[in-house]
Amino acid sequence: MKKLKVLFSALALTVASTVPGEACTDFIVGKKASADGSVIISYAADSYGLYGELYHWPAATWPKGTMLDIKEWDTGKPLGQIPQVERTYSVVGNMNEHQLAITESTFGGRPELVDTTGIMDYGSLIYVTLQRAKTAREAIQVMTTLVKEYGYYSSGESFSIADKNEVWVMEMIGKGTGNKGAVWVAIRIPDDCISGHANQARIQQIPFNDKENCIYSPDVVSFAREKGYFSGKDEDFSFAKAYCPYDFGGLRACDARVWSFFRKFDPTMDRYTDFIKGDPTKEPMPLYIKPDRKISVRDVQACMRDHYEGTDLDMTKDPGAGPFKAPYRWRPLSYEVDGQEYTNERPVATQQTGFVLVAQLRDWIVDPVGGILWFGVDDANTTVFNPIYCGVTATPECYRVGNGSLMEFSWSSAFWMHNWVANMAYHKYEYMIEDIRPVQRELEDHYEEMLPAIDKAALDLYAKDPEEAVRFLTWYSSTTADAATARWKKLGEYLLVKYIDGNIKREENGHFKDNGYGLSASPISPGYGEQFYRMIVKEAGDRLKVK
User: Fold this and answer.
1) CA atoms within 13 A on the CB side of 175
2) Which of 95, 175, 163 is nearest to 127 (CA)?
3) What global pTM score does this model have?
4) What is the rounded distance in angstroms from the CA atom of residue 38 to the CA atom of residue 32?
5) C-alpha span between 161 and 167 (Å, rounded)
6) How far is 221 from 232, CA to CA, in rounded Å?
7) Which of 301, 355, 452, 501 could form a disulfide with 52 if both were Cys (CB 3.0 to 4.6 A apart)?
8) What is the DSSP code string of 152-206?
9) pLDDT at 22
10) ω before 332 within 30° of 0 (cis)?
11) Inter-axis angle of helices 429-464 and 466-498, nearest 10
12) How does strand 334-337 pair with strand 353-361?
């Protein structure tokens, strides 16, 4: 078995960065494939070195000659400076005030193509572009111009680039030190289709003659020929095969996540099971498919919580799930026993997530109201997606940059409250998740029910005073997120009391039951399931037998 592909940025390995790059998951829904006509993209920023917070850059004007410092997104390492533009747009998280959203996943690709002299890393490329572009096509132009002029510092990257009308997947990789720029291709996802990428390059053949829906660097094929990556006809050229050839890890730990998303909306996707289990000789999955039904924001949120449930890779079913069927595996992804290498599954939802989002882009509503960043922190499975309107001028306290860090706990930080609850749940998962889900649904159902009223109130204000509408949306986005964090803190307190020391307190009429004399009733001691007991007995033999 080939060594599992490392799911961290190849750049982190190449330049010995102290913080690993992100190993992320992106899903895409075109506007004719969505339930309400919105363009939808999702993103899980997965990195043990990433603190979950909500970034904000206010709109600004800049004096001529202003220079912008570029620092590597993953590490903070200074990379250089570029000229600032005269005007920049407001950005909250991965969406700007014009309903432009950009997300990514790192595929790494050929390590020799990393250019350590470049200035633009993948993260800076995203957030600088969000401050400079209004549409997806303009964003592609800005991003590719920046790497051409200043060099591309990162390893291979897939980008989701979406506005309120259309969505594109762009894949990019550098040319190696001493060869400034990048080779890249961008393909528009049809409006009635869905797509995704998860740390594996996914663009195969390039429709060179479809100028409306495909844009590419002039040397995307010739450079591959020059480097010896490809020698066939142009029409047979595959970006993925040339710049990020499939291996076991690229399929099992990466493309499998896209497959799990696709199969929820196309039952024929099971024909790719052997491929995603790690056989690169099988037919690859398409870049996009037509779903068998319309897809809502809530559907996409649910997909971000996936652990391969209902498939052969279901992470709650094998011994690694432990006695309480936890869909989590602690790193590393691969391990060796008696000289044989084995793998842990890498699902969409993972404990290493810094933040997760679902961007909803609505072309029938004015921009400050039309764009919603459904935002959460930590593990998507146990987070709450809170609505953050793209017109906001401030971030909630619970997501504020500086409210806690990976090295500083904060009781008002959403990241820490969600981590607290999640880390409790990992140890008694099948019980605790049944207490977490109702609170999660309570909050997210409320947001969904309130959405029409909030939209209407904001639009009524906008017609009279756009600035007042923005103030209202800022207040709503902040108060709901902070209230959800406070609710999650109460949930954590409840779970700690209920499950202390491995037992389960009894409940009656919404309260913990007492013994009739004011003390706690005798708790339930659930033990382990029969399957786990059988594993213990098999391993222990007669040592634990009662005689």
Assistant:
1) 20
2) 95
3) 0.94
4) 8
5) 6
6) 10
7) 355
8) B-S-EEEEEEE-SS-EEEEEEEE--TTS-SEEEEEEEPPTT-EEEESSS----B-
9) 53
10) yes
11) 170
12) unpaired
Per the structure block, which two tokens stand in for 350? 């993972």
Residue 406, both tokens: 């990976």
SS3 506: coil
C-alpha closest to that of 71 among 56, 63, 82: 82
Tell me the three-class secondary structure of 9-28, residue by residue.
CHHHHHCCCCCCCCCCEEEE
Structure tokens at 357: 């989002």
Characterize the bridge pairing of strands 182-188 and 167-174: antiparallel
Handedness of CA 104, 121, 186, 345 (dihedral sign): negative
Is the model's pLDDT at 269 over the cut of 50? yes
One-letter amino acid at 199 equals N
The torsion of the CA quartet 434, 438, 317, 324, rounded to 10 degrees, works out to: -30
CA distance 529 to 495: 21
Are the C-beta atoms of 181 and 172 separated by less than 8 Å? no
Token code pair at residue 430: 């099948």
What single-letter amino acid sits at 312? D
Under a CB-based contact definition with an 8 Å cutoff, are residues 45 and 24 in contact?
yes
d(CA 170, CA 167): 10
Residue 375 region, left (φ>0) first, then alpha (ψ -120 to 50), else beta?
Answer: beta
Average pLDDT (192-206) is: 97
pLDDT of residue 300 exceeding 60, the answer is: yes
Q: Buried b / exposed e across 370-396, counting CB within 10 Å, b at 16+? A: bbbbbbbbbbbbbbbbbbbbbbbbebb
- Which helix (H) or strand (E) element contains residue 471? helix 466-498
160: part of which helix (H) or strand (E)? strand 156-162
For residue 409, give the H/E element and its range: none
> What pLDDT was estimated at residue 319?
87
Tokens of 62: 């800049």
Q: How many CA atoms lie within 13 A of 217 on its CB side?
A: 23
How far apart, in whole angstroms, are the C-alpha atoms of residue 262 and residue 270? 10
DSSP state of 419: H
Where are the alpha helices (H) located in 316-413, listed in sequence order?
367-370
